[in-house]
Amino acid sequence: MYYIISEIGSDVITWSDKNQISIVIRNLTSNALKFTPENGTIKIGANEKVNHWEIWIKDTGIGLPEEAINKIFNKNETFTTYGTNNEKGTGLGLVLCKEMVENNDGEIWVDSVLGEGTCFYFSVPKFNEHQHNG
Q: Where are the alpha helices (DSSP H) in 1-134?
């Protein structure tokens, strides 16, 4: 069993491709589940910034070594990792997440501490009426 807690309010409205950002959130959540031991916690939230939302997915998992952090978003540096139940991961999902976030005028980054957990962040522009009305 895992504890998944959403702290995203109904006021978080972005100007982004719904399908691409949905894939990003699903992939980051799937990774959090893969690398978090039984009874761990995964939280999803958003921080409001001036022109964008900073979405984050934080887990209480195994964390990432520094060498992995330097490679995970680089399409020329694929590597294999194993989850807490020995699931194999190639890192290709994170490369695709980076591409989709950048397609939506955002950035993606990660903070991690070995043995304590990982937090992935990505930014997406805020929705505003001027964009919507053209």
A: 18-34, 66-69, 92-103, 129-132
Q: In this structure, are residues 114 and 62 in contact, taking their beta carbons and an 8 Å threshold?
A: yes
Counting residues of the chain whose pLDDT is more than 90, the rounded percentage is 71
Burial (CB count within 10 angstroms: exposed 0-12, middle 13-18, buried 19+), residue 23: middle
Q: Is 124 exposed, middle or buried (0-12, 13-18, 19+ CB in 10 A)?
A: buried
Q: Which CATH number fits domain 3-132: 3.40.120.10, 3.30.470.30, 2.40.128.110, 3.30.565.10?
A: 3.30.565.10
Given this model, what pLDDT does residue 92 score? 73
pLDDT, tens digit, 9 for 90 and up, residues 28-86: 999 999 999 999 999 999 999 999 999 999 999 999 888 888 888 988 876 666 656 66
Residue 87, helix vs strand vs coil = coil
Q: Which residue has the tokens 């997440």?
A: 97
Q: Using CA atoms, how far apart are residues 134 and 131, in angstroms rounded to an integer?
A: 5
**Confidence (pLDDT) at 132:** 55
Domain segments of the chain as ranges: 3-132
